[in-house]
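Hi U.,

Before I forget, here's the chain from the pilot set. I'm dumping it here mostly so it's searchable later in email.
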Amino acid sequence: MPRVKRGTHHIKRRKNILARTKGMMWGRKSKLTQAKVAATKAGLHAFTDRKIKKRVNRGLQNIRINAAARKLDTTYSKLISQIKKKNIQLNRRILSQIAEKYPVVFEKIVKA
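Structure:
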């Protein structure tokens, strides 16, 4: 019995790779070997950049909390330690949003 050619799985895989590189320039959008490399590198960069985005946002949140705390004559580290001692269950993301949008509420949190 002869082997079946036409390769539906091959075509499906090729279409998937080319769909991922749609919009890229030059041969990366149309040539399979270049598209494979471009797709894997793009996926790798997307993964690492999501982690970097989280890292940068955490740093910004700390800066916002510190800036708001210093307006109220305290520092970031003192504020965080006091919040932990008082057992206030607010994470840094929420604290930074409160400090940025609702400074009166943040002042009440600091005073508490």
